[in-house]
Design a protein that fits this description.
The protein is α/β, with parallel strands linked by helices. The protein contains 22 helices and 13 strands. It is elongated, with a radius of gyration of 29 Å.
Length: 557
């Protein structure tokens, strides 16, 4: 589009009627403009006349008391007259008559609908100004009245976020079409294979560590480009495990039961958790519990005295968290575009490469936007929507070279099934197709303990069973990891691994070491005696939290 075409389009997308109604409604009821749901700024107005009217109306309302009852035409005319150049433009277009008529015909009850329509067309004008053709969504040159009405109805039925998502999907599709680095590049099987061998010898294909040391062995850590789903029933610990995994790699220090002190964490990289249910406070208390080793119950209920050992330890924990690059987003209603944009933003701004999305569920916005992308009138089943979203997450992993762990609920019939596999998932087996790693985490049942009673005669009794049902490209693709997990501090003692027939598998827990100074996995080391795991395992609560200390490191004084 050339400059003339852009200017003509902008004029045709101007909404004078809605502007007239908005001004009148705000003059009659100024509190409308103070609403947190209203966001009008200079970018929303095309003409200087509109900018002058709104700018001065905004000045009057926000300069005066919050209980201001009305703004008359005389009031606004007097405000504009203080600015000579503005008044010349305003007076040339008979601004006083405009204000008088707007005030006299004002209907505040229509403000919301007029405001929403005005904002939508302001957004369309912004797209046009940036050279984006909006005619596919709204053809401002259409002369057929019937088609005009159909297009208007379509815009009226969309939210601003849905319009943004519509064009975001178009731009993503265009970006993918013209992406210079094609994933289908051809190569000979022998190209660079010796160099690959040397690379893997020097730096095995491992990612940063999970909180569960057996996961490090089975999954080879949190590898970039991979997508993991952890599923459980309600209150099964999905969020807490995700928080622990992200905090494990992002905190500069962590509490050690062995040292009875905070110790340096060798990993300390940026991490992100996107929560769809839990707010800021709920997530923060979980993180503090993990970092400090003090049960979340103690923190939330304030079961400690001011100035006590526990209080000092918690304060140190808050300072450690404040130093970290652990980021959080609360996103109760989302689309694929929202999630993509958020993740890309953290990648660019904060160099985040490890993300937890908690959790996959159908929100109104996700449902609307996915169905819209499939075409008007399309009806999709729950499993189809969940699979579409999961595919999108996997695509983000591959395009951005990041690790994403997410979680899902189990279906209502999972308790009736003998096997804990894809058939237990809310979205069924179709949802598991795109993922690389799949785990179902459940508290042990009486039947579980009966199945492993021969093993627990010589080993500790677990309270959690992690059923691994998918592990793409690995030797161990199905197994059960048995652990003792304290959800109060999100610490876990790994015990043993069995197959689906409850026979022991000879697998050692793995520590992941790093190259010096660059936070890249270098090699792994198996601890067969579980020394590390035992040192950081859940311990019995003494009534004051877990092993409090009197020592305060100098750097935190």
């Amino acid at each position: 589009m050339n400059k003339v075409d852009i200017q003509n389009a902008i004029v045709k997308l101007e909404r004078k009627r809605e502007f007239f109604a908005i001004v009148g409604a705000v003059m009659a009821e100024p509190s409308l403009l103070r609403s947190k749901d209203v966001d009008l700024s200079p970018k929303d107005f095309h003409s200087k006349f509109q900018s002058i009217i709104f700018g001065n109306l905004n000045n009057i309302i926000f300069k005066n008391e919050a209980d201001m009852q009305k703004v008359t035409a005389e009031d606004l005319d007097g405000e504009i007259s203080k600015r000579n150049k503005q008044y010349e433009i305003y007076d040339r277009q008979d601004g006083y008559t405009f204000l008088k008529e707007a005030y006299e015909t004002a209907n505040p009850s229509t403000f919301k609908s007029n405001y929403e329509t005005f904002k939508k067309y302001a957004l369309l004008r912004t797209y046009v100004k940036n050279g984006i053709d909006v005619k596919e969504l709204f053809d401002y040159d259409e002369e057929d009245f019937v088609k005009q009405a159909e297009q208007q109805d379509r815009i009226d039925g969309m939210t601003i976020d849905e319009i943004i998502d519509y064009f975001s999907l178009k731009m993503n599709a265009l970006r993918d079409e013209w992406r210079t680095q094609d994933d289908t590049r051809a190569f000979k099987a022998g190209d660079g294979i010796l160099e690959l061998l040397d690379k893997l010898k020097e730096s095995p294909d491992f990612g940063l560590p999970f909180n569960n040391l057996y996961y490090n062995t089975i999954f080879r850590g949190m590898r970039k480009g991979k997508l993991m789903i952890r599923s459980s029933n309600t209150a099964g610990g999905k969020t807490r495990q995700a928080v622990a995994d992200m905090a494990r790699i992002s905190m500069p220090k962590l509490w050690s039961n062995e040292k009875n002190d905070f110790v340096d964490n060798p990993y300390c990289v940026p991490a992100l958790i996107i929560s769809t249910e839990l707010d800021k406070q709920e997530l923060q208390t979980m993180v503090l519990a993990y970092v400090s080793g003090i049960s979340e119950e103690v923190i939330v209920e304030g079961k400690y005295d001011e100035g006590s050992i526990i209080h000092k330890r918690l304060v140190l924990g808050t300072k450690i968290i404040a130093r970290s690059d652990f980021y959080m987003e609360y996103m109760p209603d989302f689309s694929i575009g929202d999630v993509e944009t958020t993740i890309e933003s953290y990648i660019l701004k904060h160099k985040v490469e490890h993300i937890a999305f908690d959790y996959i569920q159908i929100t109104p916005k996700l449902s609307r936007t996915i169905m819209a992308s499939f075409g008007a009138g399309t009806s999709l089943r729950e499993d189809q929507i969940l699979r579409t979203f999961t595919v999108a997450l996997k695509s983000i992993c591959e395009k951005q070279r990041v690790f994403i762990m997410t979680s899902t609920q189990l279906n209502r019939t999972f308790k009736d099934k003998d096997e804990r596999d894809t058939n237990s998932l809310r979205g069924g087996s179709a949802q598991a197709d795109p993922i690389d790693m799949g785990v179902i985490s459940l508290r042990t049942t009486e039947q579980d303990l009966n199945n492993i009673k021969g093993i627990t005669q010589t080993k500790k009794t677990p309270n959690y069973a992690h059923h691994i049902y998918k592990n793409r490209g690995a030797q161990v693709t199905e197994a059960i990891v048995w652990t003792i997990m304290d959800l109060g501090v999100m610490q876990e003692e790994v015990l043993f691994v069995t197959n689906k027939n409850y026979t022991l598998i000879n697998i050692n827990p793995t520590l992941i070491e790093l190259k010096d100074g660059n936070n890249q996995p270098k090699q792994t080391r198996a601890d067969s005696d579980l020394k590390y795991a035992k040192a950081n395992a859940p311990v019995e609560d003494n009534g004051f939290g877990h092993n409090p200390t009197n020592e305060i490191p100098d750097e935190f004084r």
